[in-house]
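Methods, example record. To illustrate the input and output format used throughout this study, we show the complete record for Protein kinase domain-containing protein. The sequence lines were provided to the predictor; the line carrying structure tokens was produced by it.
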Amino acid sequence: MANTKKKLESGQKFLNWVVMDRVGAGAFGEVYRVRGSTSQIYALKTEHCDAEHNVLMMDVTVLQDAGRQQFRHFAKIIESGRYRNDFFYLVMTLLGKSLHDLRKARKSEHFTMGTAIGSAIQTLEAIEELHRIGYLHRDIKPGNYSVGLPDRKGDLRNIYILDFGMCRRYVREDNTLRRPRSAAGFRGTPRYAALRCHMIYMIVEMTTAGIPWRRIQNMSELGEQKRRVHALEQGMLRDLFNGCPTEYGGKLPP
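The corresponding predicted structure is encoded as:
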């Protein structure tokens, strides 16, 4: 049986990499900063071999497909594989802070109008790139986007899409659409999950920090508020788009 408690320590040699520190952890694995033989720093993601749901392999698959297209909004995959019976691993470009962390770090908890609109454009471009290689993300939220690093020219202003563990391929190998399933369980993050396929909630939050259901935990109540938005109830529309450009309201699908 795989050792689910196996972790890497700072200073430990891991294959061709030296572990610097751990920068994140989830239900099935960890994320580390590692240094390569040329002193360049990368991100190392690990996932326990006995994890109930293997999501890292989807990360690898999507990044490989995106890499062949040389897309702007995807990190580069450096190496991947299996380490003994402990975990699967992925070494990739190290990125900066997430849009969630950048927004929360501001006193107002939202971006300037120009930054919000510029970020919205780039996040939409990233989704378009993902769709072009045949995948749906299914967990679009600010925490799954990051900026680049300042020591790479022009990279700090570039936004990357991340964490493809919930992705689903929606086309076959011959590029025809797969038949939709008759039923599927919920995927995503309730706060941002849409009744239609769009990102308006995340964009509003970046612009004003004020989505009406931000403190609601009950799924039924949250869903009802979103249904009222799509029913074009004027009170809900005012609450949602207060402080936003009027053009935002035109992005709601029927």
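Annotations derived from this record:
The domain at 16-93 is CATH 3.30.200.20 (Phosphorylase Kinase; domain 1).
The two ends are 51 Å apart (CA to CA).
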